[in-house]
Design brief:
The complex is a heterodimer of chains A (282) and B (259). Chain A is of the alpha/beta class and 282 residues long. In chain A, helix 7 links the parallel strand 6 and strand 7. The mean pLDDT of chain A is 92. The mean pLDDT of chain B is 92. By secondary structure, chain B is an alpha/beta fold. In chain B, the strands form three sheets. Chain B has a five-stranded parallel β-sheet with strand order 5-4-3-10-9. A three-stranded parallel β-sheet of chain B has the order 6-7-8. A two-stranded antiparallel ribbon of chain B has the order 1-2. Classes of the chains: A alpha/beta (282), B alpha/beta (259). Chains A and B meet through strand 13 of A and strand 4 and helix 2 of B. Strand 13 of chain A pairs antiparallel with strand 4 of chain B.
Chain lengths: 282, 259
């Protein structure tokens, strides 16, 4: 099943030139164990065969760990290495239109784009993309300008897709981002250059999760609208309602859910549940 | 005497099927079932009443019974199929009594939708017993579709009016190769007996037992009625006559002079 980008995600861009001697695979493994949700491979200077080999290995690791793997710049490499998607910079978009990239990768894959101004963001916000990166927010060695946090509120108000704020983000300036309403961040050196990549990833991820307010959704249970915690699964609901599992059968959006799958099925807004049992009848 | 009824690979010894609706308590229902010892009982599938704790009806049905859920509440074939699938997952059995009803006044079944549901469910491996209005063409189609029996109504559900459809059911009994089981409307053991006398394979009784003042004895009386009817059917019923045929010898009366 295709992975989907949720909010409160931590996005790591891996580039071996910033890794202080660690290999991309080492960085990826440690970052994943620390809670990174998305990994992008960005190697501008590697020969193609090396790049393909590395991308394949990363793709495999990410796939096993249910982490989203994104390839920078090149939809062909993304497709060839079975990545979950591609990230296109403004320059890449000259070579590869969104339509072309989409046609190549298919509907299930993720396409993200970089934007470097409010106008670029607004334009990308109208496109068929799955996420938008916006930055650099703070001063960074890779760029000679920065945008600051001033437009974050407006961006979050109009964003139709998850937005990743990038560029010079660290633990000192993270609060400024989050208090302006940012939900997702992307990092390069903020993680790559920390001594303990796993610990650094975990700290960033925890700070993102703390932003998340408990959310409820409305579902229909046996024809009646009910408010339940978002992402509650069927097993939790059954326990919460004090229902005896052995007596009942549950249908979720018209699909009968076997009891051993109850824990895997999360409830979303407008889902329909039918909970039935046997009664007397002729 | 070998008189076997086999449905869905199961040998049915008791030709009284009992429905479990309308009993005043599960405990009373259990007592009636334990007294009558049916091989097949029916149940329905309903939404759980979430706030209230209710017992599991299956705990009150003797373990050796075949539990046959019905699809009551279904108004279309699709709804019946949906209920059947849910019922099978509930772990009762793969038997299903198809009941598709749109008519709320007489609760008469929709034979066409019933046929559609039968076709689908037989393919999915169910043992299908459709509740129908007694109609020969439809019964034939159902048999062709793989139904394990047909269940024509005697009279409207819960009406206790007996086997008002007798002549049509007699045709089914003569013409259809699968068992004919009269379902619905039987109010007294004599009516159940009548169904068995005309060659039905079994009967299904619910209301008359469940709402009687003494379900335990009523259930047993139905067992006896069914058994008597079956027995005389097998023995062969003598034909009706339009005038009397004296049972006692017509000679040797004391009234006349011997001539």
């Amino acid at each position: 099943m295709a992975l989907k980008i949720d909010n409160y995600s931590l996005y790591l861009v891996i580039s071996e030139e910033y890794s202080l001697g660690k290999t991309a695979l080492e960085v990826a493994r440690q970052a994943i164990s620390g809670g990174v949700d998305i990994i992008q491979l960005r190697e501008k200077n590697k020969p193609k065969d090396e790049l393909l080999k590395l991308a394949r290995e990363l793709s495999k690791i990410c796939n096993e760990e249910r982490v989203i793997f994104i390839v920078n710049d090149d939809p062909l490499i993304a497709k060839e290495t079975q990545a979950d998607g591609v990230h296109l910079g403004q320059g890449d978009l000259q070579k590869f239109s969104l339509a072309k990239a989409r046609a190549l990768l298919g509907r299930d894959k993720i396409i993200g784009v970089s934007t470097h101004s409010l106008d670029e963001f607004k334009s990308a916000n109208q496109d068929e993309v799955d996420y938008i990166a916006y930055g650099p927010i703070f001063p960074t060695k890779t760029k000679d300008y920065f945008l600051g946090a001033k437009d974050i509120k407006e961006i979050m108000a109009i964003a139709r897709k998850p937005v990743f704020f990038i560029g010079g983000v660290d633990l000192n300036n993270l609060d400024e981002l989050l208090s302006a309403g940012a939900k997702n961040i992307a990092l390069i050196r903020g993680i790559m250059q920390s001594e303990d990549i796993k610990a650094a990833s975990r700290i960033f991820k925890n700070r993102l999760i703390q932003q998340r307010k408990p959310v409820t959704v409305i579902v229909r249970i046996n024809g009646k609208a009910e408010v339940v915690a978002e992402k509650i699964n069927i097993l939790e609901l059954v326990k919460h309602k004090n229902l005896l599992a052995e007596n009942i059968v549950i249908e979720h959006n018209l699909r009968i859910v076997p009891k051993n799958e109850w824990w895997q099925v999360n409830l979303n807004e407008n889902d329909t549940l039918e909970i039935v049992n046997f009664m007397g009848g002729g | 005497m070998s008189d076997q009824l086999i449905i869905g690979g199961k040998q049915i010894n008791n030709r009284l099927f009992i429905g479990t609706g309308k009993f005043s308590s599960y405990a009373l229902m259990r007592d009636a079932l334990e007294a009558a010892k049916p091989d097949v009982v029916t149940v329905s599938l309903r939404r759980v009443d979430i706030g209230s704790k209710t017992d599991n009806i299956l705990d009150y049905i003797p373990k050796n019974c075949i539990v046959m859920p019905n699809t009551s509440g279904a108004r279309t074939a699709d709804e019946a199929v949906r209920i059947a699938r849910l019922a099978r997952v509930s772990g009762s059995s793969n038997w299903i009594k198809i009941e598709v009803i749109q008519d709320n006044k007489y609760l008469l079944p929709d034979n066409l939708e019933t046929l559609k549901a039968t076709e689908i469910l037989v393919k999915e491996g169910f043992i299908v017993l459709p509740y129908i209005s007694p109609d020969l063409s439809m019964a034939r189609r159902l048999a062709d579709a793989g139904a394990s029996a047909v269940m024509p109504l005697g009279s409207p559900i819960g009406s206790n009016r007996g086997v008002k459809t007798r002549e049509l059911i007699e045709i089914l009994v003569r013409e259809i190769k699968i068992p004919v089981i009269v379902d619905a409307g039987l109010g007294r053991p004599s009516q159940a007996c009548e169904c068995m006398e005309i060659g039905c394979a079994a009967v299904l009784v619910n209301t008359a037992i469940a709402v009687s003042a003494d379900p335990v004895n009523t259930a047993q009386a139905f067992v006896e009625g069914v058994r008597a009817g079956r027995r005389v059917y097998l023995a062969g019923i003598t034909e009706d006559e339009n005038q009397a045929r004296a049972s006692s010898p017509l000679t040797g009366f004391l009234r006349d002079n011997e001539s």
